[in-house]
Amino acid sequence: MPSKVNASKPSARERLLAAADDLFYREGVQTVGIDRIVQKAGVAKASLYNLFGSKDELVQAYLDARHADTREQVERTLTRFRTPRERLLGVFDAQGQLFTEPDFNGCAHMTASAEARPGSPIECAAERYRLWVRTLFTDLAREAGVADFEGLARQLHLLYDGAGVSARMDQDPSAATTARAAAAALFDAAVRDGDASARIPRG
Amino acid sequence: MPSKVNASKPSARERLLAAADDLFYREGVQTVGIDRIVQKAGVAKASLYNLFGSKDELVQAYLDARHADTREQVERTLTRFRTPRERLLGVFDAQGQLFTEPDFNGCAHMTASAEARPGSPIECAAERYRLWVRTLFTDLAREAGVADFEGLARQLHLLYDGAGVSARMDQDPSAATTARAAAAALFDAAVRDGDASARIPRG
DNA sequence: AACTGGGAAGACAGGTCTGTCTAGTCGTAT
DNA sequence: ATACGACTAGACAGACCTGTCTTCCCAGTT
What we know:
Structural class of chain A: mainly alpha
CATH superfamily of the largest domain in chain A: Tetracycline Repressor, domain 2
Largest sheet of chain A: none
Number of strands of chain A: 0
CATH topology of the largest domain in chain A: Tetracycline Repressor, domain 2
Oligomer: homodimer
Distance between the termini of chain A: 67 Å
Shape of chain A: elongated
Helix content of chain A: over 70%
Radius of gyration of chain A: 20 Å
CATH architecture of the largest domain in chain A: Orthogonal Bundle
CATH class of the largest domain in chain A: Mainly Alpha
Number of domains of chain A: 2
Number of helices of chain A: 9
């Protein structure tokens, strides 16, 4: 009965995902081999292939789990804010929290996608993640009443990605606060522009 | 005499770098093996190891060549602009040109660094590249008279990185124009702030 | 004509990789 | 008791990797 919850020991699937998360994230999906994962998880190799089918699909499951975690953390952070502007900028507060986690090593989807070959399930997982981020910014910008909410969302997505890159490559967690300040300036500029074009009929 | 220039055939070193540039950039430094490089270059494997010492150092040379190309293209583009503001934003014009090249596949330093292990010559090359970009933005912002030129440079660097990510992962070359528009807004906001704090003593 | 050095060609070592397969163990439900 | 499903343990195949080494070729120089 796999639906048993009070098991003393996590299931093979959970142990595999935990080991994959640790090793893949720290060292990269390409350099970490299957053997190390099954050894760290204390799981037979056959179980891995029974449960996931291939290494690519294990990587996909690892990315999807990271995606769910990030989503949860961002949504939890956003509940702390009330005004639309605060909620929009709150995404970068959540990002800053992720950056300061002790074993932070950049955006998992970005590094995994850089190692994946085109069309693999890995790239699909990265695409899903990007779509979620984009939709998040678009919705928040629209709720904030920004006229060109899609344009602002594209700009904020650039800052979000850039902060992830900088936090990893420059080892600088403050990239999130830099991004937040830039996002605030862009938001205010977009609101000003929207007001201006609304006040001045036909430009 | 290796300094001969009018050779009918490029030297082994040049052929190796050309093959490395093509294969490494298109498929990634990890997935492309030495054998494919020497075969494409028409060069003996021993020559590769005589000339470069190891695969990592060949990757480093490939990244340094890309760095030099990018630098040259950016500097050439910037000569077309006169005002400091135009020159600052011109970096994103140059970036947009790179994005529309037919075989564009993202920032080589970013993808290579994602596959490299810490401390390798690959990471050092990526660090050098990042330092150049940062210095470029810092100098241009200072020449434009921005009070907090370092802060603005950090913000623009985020946009620059984010545009590179988006152009690759979303297959969207217009990321450069989005970044340029955001950069313009941030620049103007920074100039306003600088003026304000200059006008309002100890404000 | 003899020498020399850069390069071509490729075998080889030693290791790692993914994925398959066999054989056996253990707990649980019937 | 017995059957079953989930799991473990590990050998194995076949391919690929980096890096070394030997052997040979050939153009240019002395």
